[in-house]
Amino acid sequence: MCKTVFLDRDGTINEEVNYLHRPEDLKLLPMAAEAIRLWNDHGFRVVVVTNQAGVARGYYQEADVEKLHQYMNQILKEKGAHIDAFYYCPHHPEHGIGPYKIKCHCRKPDTGMFEAAERDCPVDKAHSYMVGDKWLDTQAGARFGVHTALVGTGYGRELYEEVLRGHPHRNPDGGQESRSDAEHPMEFFGNTLYDVALWTLRCEEYGGSAAKAPASGSLRRNKAMTEPINQLKLLIQRYPQLAPIEQQIHQAYEILEQCYERGGKLLVAGNGGSCADSEHMVGELMKGFCRKRPVPEAFEKRLAEADPVLGPELAAKLQGALPAIALTGHPALSTAYLNDVDGLLTFAQQVYGYGTEGDVLLGISTSGNSKNILYAMTAARAKGMKTIGLTGRDGGALGRAADAAIIVPEQETYWIQELHLPIYHTLCLMLEEHFFPV
Protein backbone atom coordinates (compact mmCIF):
# COMPACT_ATOMS: atom_id res chain seq x y z
CA MET A 1 0.00 0.00 0.00
CA CYS A 2 1.40 3.38 -1.03
CA LYS A 3 1.03 6.59 0.95
CA THR A 4 0.40 8.88 -2.01
CA VAL A 5 0.26 12.60 -2.60
CA PHE A 6 -1.68 13.38 -5.78
CA LEU A 7 -0.82 16.79 -7.22
CA ASP A 8 -2.43 18.91 -9.86
CA ARG A 9 0.24 20.42 -12.11
CA ASP A 10 -0.42 23.94 -13.47
CA GLY A 11 -1.00 26.49 -10.72
CA THR A 12 0.02 23.97 -8.08
CA ILE A 13 3.60 22.94 -8.93
CA ASN A 14 4.38 25.45 -11.66
CA GLU A 15 3.10 28.86 -12.67
CA GLU A 16 -0.12 28.88 -14.65
CA VAL A 17 0.63 29.27 -18.38
CA ASN A 18 -2.14 29.01 -20.95
CA TYR A 19 -1.78 25.54 -22.50
CA LEU A 20 1.72 24.99 -21.19
CA HIS A 21 3.66 22.50 -23.30
CA ARG A 22 7.08 24.02 -24.00
CA PRO A 23 9.84 23.26 -21.45
CA GLU A 24 11.21 26.80 -21.76
CA ASP A 25 7.90 28.17 -20.42
CA LEU A 26 7.96 26.03 -17.29
CA LYS A 27 8.62 27.91 -14.05
CA LEU A 28 8.26 26.19 -10.68
CA LEU A 29 6.26 28.03 -8.02
CA PRO A 30 8.11 29.17 -4.87
CA MET A 31 8.51 26.36 -2.31
CA ALA A 32 7.06 23.74 -4.69
CA ALA A 33 10.28 21.76 -5.03
CA GLU A 34 10.85 21.97 -1.27
CA ALA A 35 7.35 20.61 -0.64
CA ILE A 36 7.84 17.70 -3.02
CA ARG A 37 11.21 16.93 -1.47
CA LEU A 38 9.57 16.89 1.96
CA TRP A 39 7.07 14.30 0.75
CA ASN A 40 9.86 12.30 -0.90
CA ASP A 41 11.84 12.30 2.34
CA HIS A 42 8.83 11.10 4.36
CA GLY A 43 8.06 8.08 2.21
CA PHE A 44 5.16 9.37 0.10
CA ARG A 45 4.69 8.39 -3.51
CA VAL A 46 4.23 11.72 -5.34
CA VAL A 47 1.97 11.53 -8.38
CA VAL A 48 0.87 14.24 -10.82
CA VAL A 49 -2.70 14.05 -12.20
CA THR A 50 -3.35 16.74 -14.80
CA ASN A 51 -6.04 17.53 -17.38
CA GLN A 52 -4.43 18.35 -20.74
CA ALA A 53 -7.22 19.67 -22.94
CA GLY A 54 -4.59 21.27 -25.18
CA VAL A 55 -3.96 17.82 -26.65
CA ALA A 56 -7.69 17.34 -27.28
CA ARG A 57 -7.89 20.73 -29.00
CA GLY A 58 -4.88 19.94 -31.21
CA TYR A 59 -2.65 22.65 -29.73
CA TYR A 60 0.13 20.18 -28.96
CA GLN A 61 0.79 16.44 -28.95
CA GLU A 62 0.92 13.82 -26.20
CA ALA A 63 4.66 13.57 -26.88
CA ASP A 64 4.95 17.25 -25.88
CA VAL A 65 3.26 16.52 -22.55
CA GLU A 66 5.64 13.64 -21.84
CA LYS A 67 8.66 15.74 -22.82
CA LEU A 68 7.55 18.54 -20.47
CA HIS A 69 7.12 16.07 -17.61
CA GLN A 70 10.61 14.67 -18.17
CA TYR A 71 11.97 18.22 -18.05
CA MET A 72 10.01 19.01 -14.88
CA ASN A 73 11.49 15.98 -13.15
CA GLN A 74 14.96 16.98 -14.33
CA ILE A 75 14.56 20.40 -12.68
CA LEU A 76 13.13 18.88 -9.52
CA LYS A 77 15.97 16.34 -9.25
CA GLU A 78 18.45 19.22 -9.36
CA LYS A 79 16.67 20.49 -6.25
CA GLY A 80 16.72 17.11 -4.51
CA ALA A 81 13.08 16.24 -5.30
CA HIS A 82 11.24 14.04 -7.77
CA ILE A 83 7.81 13.06 -9.08
CA ASP A 84 7.26 9.29 -9.02
CA ALA A 85 4.65 9.16 -11.79
CA PHE A 86 2.72 11.41 -14.15
CA TYR A 87 -0.83 10.74 -15.38
CA TYR A 88 -2.66 13.03 -17.77
CA CYS A 89 -6.02 13.18 -19.50
CA PRO A 90 -5.79 14.21 -23.19
CA HIS A 91 -9.57 14.30 -23.77
CA HIS A 92 -12.33 16.90 -23.84
CA PRO A 93 -16.00 16.04 -24.27
CA GLU A 94 -16.90 19.21 -26.21
CA HIS A 95 -13.79 20.79 -27.70
CA GLY A 96 -11.78 17.71 -28.55
CA ILE A 97 -10.73 16.78 -32.06
CA GLY A 98 -11.08 13.30 -33.57
CA PRO A 99 -10.53 10.46 -31.08
CA TYR A 100 -9.89 12.96 -28.27
CA LYS A 101 -13.50 14.22 -28.32
CA ILE A 102 -15.00 11.81 -25.82
CA LYS A 103 -16.61 11.90 -22.41
CA CYS A 104 -13.92 9.97 -20.58
CA HIS A 105 -13.50 8.62 -17.08
CA CYS A 106 -10.02 10.11 -16.61
CA ARG A 107 -10.72 13.84 -16.82
CA LYS A 108 -10.93 15.48 -13.39
CA PRO A 109 -13.22 15.73 -11.47
CA ASP A 110 -13.63 12.09 -12.44
CA THR A 111 -11.19 9.57 -10.97
CA GLY A 112 -9.70 7.60 -13.87
CA MET A 113 -6.18 8.93 -13.37
CA PHE A 114 -6.32 8.06 -9.67
CA GLU A 115 -7.44 4.54 -10.52
CA ALA A 116 -4.59 4.19 -13.02
CA ALA A 117 -2.15 5.22 -10.29
CA GLU A 118 -3.71 2.69 -7.93
CA ARG A 119 -3.24 -0.08 -10.48
CA ASP A 120 0.46 0.71 -10.48
CA CYS A 121 0.65 0.85 -6.67
CA PRO A 122 -2.31 0.24 -4.33
CA VAL A 123 -3.17 3.51 -2.59
CA ASP A 124 -3.44 3.69 1.20
CA LYS A 125 -6.36 6.12 1.08
CA ALA A 126 -6.35 6.85 4.81
CA HIS A 127 -2.82 8.25 4.43
CA SER A 128 -3.09 9.84 0.98
CA TYR A 129 -3.89 13.38 -0.20
CA MET A 130 -5.01 15.31 -3.26
CA VAL A 131 -3.75 18.89 -3.65
CA GLY A 132 -4.74 21.35 -6.35
CA ASP A 133 -5.70 24.95 -7.08
CA LYS A 134 -9.21 24.27 -8.43
CA TRP A 135 -12.34 22.73 -6.97
CA LEU A 136 -12.33 20.04 -9.64
CA ASP A 137 -9.04 18.83 -8.13
CA THR A 138 -10.45 18.48 -4.63
CA GLN A 139 -13.70 17.05 -6.03
CA ALA A 140 -11.71 14.31 -7.75
CA GLY A 141 -9.76 13.59 -4.58
CA ALA A 142 -12.92 13.43 -2.50
CA ARG A 143 -14.58 11.06 -4.97
CA PHE A 144 -11.54 8.80 -4.87
CA GLY A 145 -11.60 8.83 -1.09
CA VAL A 146 -8.39 10.62 -0.09
CA HIS A 147 -7.82 13.75 1.99
CA THR A 148 -8.10 17.03 0.08
CA ALA A 149 -6.37 20.41 0.22
CA LEU A 150 -6.70 23.59 -1.83
CA VAL A 151 -3.50 25.56 -2.38
CA GLY A 152 -3.50 29.35 -2.63
CA THR A 153 -1.38 29.53 -5.78
CA GLY A 154 -2.80 29.51 -9.30
CA TYR A 155 -6.58 29.99 -9.00
CA GLY A 156 -6.76 28.67 -5.45
CA ARG A 157 -6.91 31.84 -3.37
CA GLU A 158 -9.40 33.52 -5.70
CA LEU A 159 -11.71 30.50 -5.61
CA TYR A 160 -11.38 30.12 -1.85
CA GLU A 161 -12.17 33.76 -1.18
CA GLU A 162 -15.24 33.54 -3.42
CA VAL A 163 -16.57 30.82 -1.15
CA LEU A 164 -15.53 32.69 2.00
CA ARG A 165 -17.55 35.72 1.01
CA GLY A 166 -20.60 33.66 1.84
CA HIS A 167 -19.04 32.75 5.20
CA PRO A 168 -17.74 36.02 6.74
CA HIS A 169 -16.62 34.23 9.93
CA ARG A 170 -14.00 32.34 7.94
CA ASN A 171 -10.46 33.71 7.66
CA PRO A 172 -8.84 33.28 4.22
CA ASP A 173 -5.37 33.83 5.65
CA GLY A 174 -5.67 31.39 8.52
CA GLY A 175 -5.06 28.26 6.52
CA GLN A 176 -7.33 26.31 8.79
CA GLU A 177 -10.94 26.53 7.68
CA SER A 178 -12.34 23.54 5.80
CA ARG A 179 -15.31 22.80 3.58
CA SER A 180 -16.64 19.32 2.99
CA ASP A 181 -19.71 19.88 0.80
CA ALA A 182 -19.80 18.18 -2.59
CA GLU A 183 -19.15 21.37 -4.58
CA HIS A 184 -16.23 22.60 -2.49
CA PRO A 185 -14.65 19.57 -0.80
CA MET A 186 -11.58 20.61 1.15
CA GLU A 187 -10.01 19.73 4.46
CA PHE A 188 -7.27 22.36 4.40
CA PHE A 189 -6.31 25.59 2.68
CA GLY A 190 -2.61 26.48 2.46
CA ASN A 191 -1.00 29.56 0.98
CA THR A 192 1.81 27.55 -0.65
CA LEU A 193 2.43 23.92 -1.51
CA TYR A 194 4.94 23.80 1.33
CA ASP A 195 2.23 24.87 3.80
CA VAL A 196 0.11 21.98 2.54
CA ALA A 197 3.05 19.57 2.83
CA LEU A 198 3.55 20.52 6.48
CA TRP A 199 -0.17 19.99 7.11
CA THR A 200 -0.05 16.49 5.59
CA LEU A 201 2.84 15.58 7.89
CA ARG A 202 0.91 16.87 10.88
CA CYS A 203 -2.01 14.69 9.76
CA GLU A 204 0.33 11.69 9.66
CA GLU A 205 1.47 12.40 13.20
CA TYR A 206 -2.20 12.04 14.17
CA GLY A 207 -2.62 8.73 12.37
CA GLY A 208 -3.74 10.24 9.07
CA SER A 209 -6.54 12.19 10.76
CA ALA A 210 -7.19 15.58 9.17
CA ALA A 211 -9.82 16.26 11.84
CA LYS A 212 -7.36 15.89 14.73
CA ALA A 213 -4.30 17.48 13.13
CA PRO A 214 -3.65 21.15 14.00
CA ALA A 215 -3.83 23.49 11.02
CA SER A 216 -0.52 25.12 11.95
CA GLY A 217 2.41 24.72 14.30
CA SER A 218 5.66 22.82 14.33
CA LEU A 219 5.99 19.15 13.66
CA ARG A 220 7.02 16.93 16.52
CA ARG A 221 10.71 17.00 17.32
CA ASN A 222 11.33 13.43 16.16
CA LYS A 223 11.77 14.85 12.66
CA ALA A 224 15.25 16.08 11.74
CA MET A 225 13.87 19.24 10.16
CA THR A 226 11.75 20.46 13.07
CA GLU A 227 14.45 22.34 14.99
CA PRO A 228 15.05 24.83 12.16
CA ILE A 229 11.29 25.33 11.86
CA ASN A 230 11.05 25.93 15.61
CA GLN A 231 13.73 28.64 15.37
CA LEU A 232 11.74 30.36 12.65
CA LYS A 233 8.55 30.18 14.70
CA LEU A 234 10.43 31.70 17.63
CA LEU A 235 11.59 34.57 15.40
CA ILE A 236 8.00 35.28 14.38
CA GLN A 237 6.88 35.20 18.00
CA ARG A 238 9.52 37.77 18.94
CA TYR A 239 9.00 39.92 15.84
CA PRO A 240 5.34 39.49 14.82
CA GLN A 241 5.74 42.09 12.07
CA LEU A 242 7.79 39.45 10.20
CA ALA A 243 4.87 36.98 10.03
CA PRO A 244 3.94 38.00 6.44
CA ILE A 245 7.44 37.04 5.23
CA GLU A 246 7.85 33.78 7.16
CA GLN A 247 7.75 31.73 3.96
CA GLN A 248 10.30 34.03 2.32
CA ILE A 249 12.71 33.37 5.18
CA HIS A 250 12.09 29.63 5.06
CA GLN A 251 12.67 29.59 1.30
CA ALA A 252 16.04 31.29 1.82
CA TYR A 253 16.89 28.72 4.49
CA GLU A 254 16.05 25.85 2.12
CA ILE A 255 18.40 27.30 -0.51
CA LEU A 256 21.21 27.60 2.03
CA GLU A 257 20.63 24.12 3.43
CA GLN A 258 20.73 22.56 -0.04
CA CYS A 259 23.90 24.50 -0.87
CA TYR A 260 25.75 23.22 2.20
CA GLU A 261 24.38 19.70 1.82
CA ARG A 262 26.06 19.59 -1.59
CA GLY A 263 29.37 21.00 -0.41
CA GLY A 264 28.84 24.56 -1.61
CA LYS A 265 29.63 27.91 0.01
CA LEU A 266 27.94 31.23 0.66
CA LEU A 267 29.13 34.59 -0.64
CA VAL A 268 27.70 37.69 1.10
CA ALA A 269 27.82 41.34 0.02
CA GLY A 270 26.38 44.67 1.15
CA ASN A 271 27.16 48.37 1.53
CA GLY A 272 27.50 50.51 4.66
CA GLY A 273 25.55 48.96 7.50
CA SER A 274 24.84 46.01 5.22
CA CYS A 275 28.60 45.62 4.77
CA ALA A 276 28.84 45.15 8.55
CA ASP A 277 25.94 42.69 8.43
CA SER A 278 27.76 40.71 5.74
CA GLU A 279 30.84 40.34 7.93
CA HIS A 280 28.68 39.59 10.99
CA MET A 281 26.80 36.75 9.26
CA VAL A 282 29.99 35.16 7.97
CA GLY A 283 31.40 35.24 11.50
CA GLU A 284 28.41 33.26 12.81
CA LEU A 285 28.71 30.64 10.07
CA MET A 286 32.46 30.09 10.05
CA LYS A 287 32.73 29.17 13.76
CA GLY A 288 30.54 28.03 16.62
CA PHE A 289 27.52 30.30 17.06
CA CYS A 290 25.29 28.89 19.82
CA ARG A 291 26.52 25.30 19.77
CA LYS A 292 29.81 23.51 20.13
CA ARG A 293 31.09 22.32 16.77
CA PRO A 294 33.84 19.74 17.38
CA VAL A 295 35.78 18.61 14.35
CA PRO A 296 34.94 15.08 13.09
CA GLU A 297 36.89 12.23 14.65
CA ALA A 298 38.39 11.31 11.28
CA PHE A 299 39.84 14.80 10.88
CA GLU A 300 41.04 14.76 14.49
CA LYS A 301 43.08 11.64 13.69
CA ARG A 302 44.50 13.24 10.55
CA LEU A 303 45.59 16.27 12.57
CA ALA A 304 47.45 13.99 15.02
CA GLU A 305 49.10 12.21 12.11
CA ALA A 306 50.11 15.54 10.55
CA ASP A 307 51.78 16.71 13.77
CA PRO A 308 51.71 14.67 17.02
CA VAL A 309 52.36 17.82 19.09
CA LEU A 310 50.30 20.52 17.42
CA GLY A 311 47.59 18.21 16.07
CA PRO A 312 45.82 17.51 19.40
CA GLU A 313 45.77 21.24 20.24
CA LEU A 314 44.24 22.02 16.87
CA ALA A 315 41.67 19.25 17.29
CA ALA A 316 40.64 20.68 20.66
CA LYS A 317 40.25 24.25 19.42
CA LEU A 318 39.16 24.11 15.77
CA GLN A 319 35.42 24.41 15.22
CA GLY A 320 33.09 23.15 12.53
CA ALA A 321 32.49 25.72 9.80
CA LEU A 322 29.90 26.42 7.15
CA PRO A 323 32.00 27.96 4.35
CA ALA A 324 31.14 31.63 3.84
CA ILE A 325 33.00 34.61 2.40
CA ALA A 326 32.14 38.29 2.89
CA LEU A 327 32.96 40.03 -0.38
CA THR A 328 33.36 43.25 1.60
CA GLY A 329 36.62 42.32 3.34
CA HIS A 330 39.29 42.48 0.65
CA PRO A 331 40.54 46.10 0.58
CA ALA A 332 43.54 45.53 -1.67
CA LEU A 333 41.46 43.77 -4.34
CA SER A 334 38.55 46.21 -3.98
CA THR A 335 40.63 49.35 -4.23
CA ALA A 336 42.68 47.96 -7.12
CA TYR A 337 39.51 47.12 -9.05
CA LEU A 338 38.07 50.55 -8.18
CA ASN A 339 41.20 52.27 -9.49
CA ASP A 340 41.85 50.07 -12.52
CA VAL A 341 38.41 49.06 -13.77
CA ASP A 342 35.07 50.01 -12.15
CA GLY A 343 34.30 50.06 -8.43
CA LEU A 344 30.67 49.08 -9.00
CA LEU A 345 31.83 45.74 -10.39
CA THR A 346 34.03 44.77 -7.42
CA PHE A 347 31.47 42.34 -5.97
CA ALA A 348 30.71 40.92 -9.42
CA GLN A 349 34.42 40.28 -10.02
CA GLN A 350 34.67 38.37 -6.75
CA VAL A 351 31.55 36.34 -7.56
CA TYR A 352 33.17 35.46 -10.87
CA GLY A 353 36.41 34.50 -9.15
CA TYR A 354 35.09 32.71 -6.06
CA GLY A 355 31.70 31.40 -7.15
CA THR A 356 30.98 27.98 -8.57
CA GLU A 357 27.77 26.29 -9.66
CA GLY A 358 25.73 25.34 -6.60
CA ASP A 359 27.06 28.15 -4.41
CA VAL A 360 24.78 30.89 -3.06
CA LEU A 361 25.10 34.68 -3.20
CA LEU A 362 23.31 36.63 -0.47
CA GLY A 363 22.99 40.30 -1.42
CA ILE A 364 21.95 42.79 1.27
CA SER A 365 20.45 46.12 0.21
CA THR A 366 17.89 48.09 2.23
CA SER A 367 16.55 49.75 -0.93
CA GLY A 368 16.93 46.72 -3.18
CA ASN A 369 18.48 48.91 -5.85
CA SER A 370 22.22 48.95 -5.05
CA LYS A 371 23.85 48.62 -8.47
CA ASN A 372 26.94 46.79 -7.25
CA ILE A 373 24.69 44.15 -5.64
CA LEU A 374 22.63 43.81 -8.81
CA TYR A 375 25.78 43.38 -10.91
CA ALA A 376 26.90 40.63 -8.53
CA MET A 377 23.49 38.94 -8.80
CA THR A 378 23.78 38.83 -12.57
CA ALA A 379 27.26 37.32 -12.36
CA ALA A 380 25.98 34.73 -9.86
CA ARG A 381 23.16 33.62 -12.16
CA ALA A 382 25.63 33.27 -15.00
CA LYS A 383 27.80 31.04 -12.77
CA GLY A 384 24.85 28.77 -11.99
CA MET A 385 24.57 29.98 -8.38
CA LYS A 386 21.40 30.46 -6.35
CA THR A 387 20.68 33.98 -5.12
CA ILE A 388 19.04 35.43 -2.00
CA GLY A 389 18.11 39.06 -1.50
CA LEU A 390 17.76 40.63 1.95
CA THR A 391 16.05 43.97 1.50
CA GLY A 392 13.09 46.18 2.50
CA ARG A 393 10.47 48.64 1.22
CA ASP A 394 9.04 47.17 -2.00
CA GLY A 395 12.05 44.92 -2.61
CA GLY A 396 13.33 46.98 -5.51
CA ALA A 397 15.17 45.33 -8.38
CA LEU A 398 16.86 42.94 -5.96
CA GLY A 399 13.49 41.58 -4.85
CA ARG A 400 12.70 40.73 -8.46
CA ALA A 401 16.12 39.36 -9.36
CA ALA A 402 16.79 36.99 -6.45
CA ASP A 403 15.67 33.35 -6.35
CA ALA A 404 14.49 34.03 -2.79
CA ALA A 405 13.80 37.58 -1.63
CA ILE A 406 13.34 38.43 2.05
CA ILE A 407 11.60 41.81 1.90
CA VAL A 408 11.30 43.36 5.37
CA PRO A 409 8.00 45.28 5.74
CA GLU A 410 9.62 48.60 6.73
CA GLN A 411 10.49 51.83 4.89
CA GLU A 412 13.20 53.57 6.91
CA THR A 413 16.74 52.29 6.34
CA TYR A 414 17.64 51.88 10.01
CA TRP A 415 14.34 50.10 10.76
CA ILE A 416 15.01 47.70 7.89
CA GLN A 417 18.50 47.02 9.21
CA GLU A 418 17.15 46.47 12.73
CA LEU A 419 15.07 43.58 11.38
CA HIS A 420 17.78 42.22 9.06
CA LEU A 421 19.92 41.23 12.06
CA PRO A 422 17.42 38.86 13.76
CA ILE A 423 16.60 37.37 10.36
CA TYR A 424 20.16 36.41 9.47
CA HIS A 425 20.82 35.34 13.06
CA THR A 426 17.85 32.98 12.73
CA LEU A 427 19.13 31.64 9.42
CA CYS A 428 22.49 30.96 11.09
CA LEU A 429 20.78 29.22 14.02
CA MET A 430 18.68 27.07 11.68
CA LEU A 431 21.76 26.02 9.71
CA GLU A 432 23.78 25.33 12.84
CA GLU A 433 21.06 23.13 14.31
CA HIS A 434 20.75 21.19 11.07
CA PHE A 435 24.46 20.61 10.42
CA PHE A 436 25.72 20.41 14.00
CA PRO A 437 23.06 18.49 15.96
CA VAL A 438 23.61 17.95 19.66
**Spatial shape:** globular
Question: What distance separates the N and C termini?
Answer: 36 Å
Count of helical stretches: 17
Order of helices and strands: EHEHHEHEHEHEHHHEHHHEHHEHEHEH
Structural class given helices, strands, pairing?
A: alpha/beta
Q: Note the beta-strand portion.
A: 5-15%
What is the oligomer described by this structure? single chain
Name the average pLDDT: 90
Structure summary, number of beta strands: 11
* Largest sheet properties: 6 strands, parallel
Gyration radius, rounded = 24 Å
Major β-sheet strand ordering: 3-2-1-4-5-6
Question: Which stretches of 5+ consecutive residues score pLDDT under 50?
Answer: 168-178, 217-227
**Helix content range:** 40-55%
List the helices and strands and how they pair.
Blueprint: E1 4-7, H1 32-41, E2 45-51, H2 53-56, H3 62-78, E3 85-89, H4 112-120, E4 129-132, H5 135-144, E5 147-151, H6 156-164, E6 188-190, H7 193-205, H8 226-238, H9 246-261, E7 266-270, H10 273-285, H11 297-306, H12 310-317, E8 324-326, H13 331-340, H14 346-354, E9 360-364, H15 371-382, E10 386-392, H16 396-401, E11 404-408, H17 413-435
Parallel strand pairs: 1-2, 1-4, 2-3, 4-5, 5-6, 7-8, 7-9, 9-10, 10-11
Provide an overview of this structure.
- The protein has 438 residues and is an alpha/beta fold.
- 44% of the residues lie in helices and 12% in strands.
- The protein has 17 helices and 11 strands.
- It has a 6-stranded parallel β-sheet, sandwiched between helices. Strands 8-7-9-10-11 form a 5-stranded parallel β-sheet, with helices on both faces.
- Helix 14 (346-354) packs parallel to helix 15.
- The two termini are 36 Å apart.
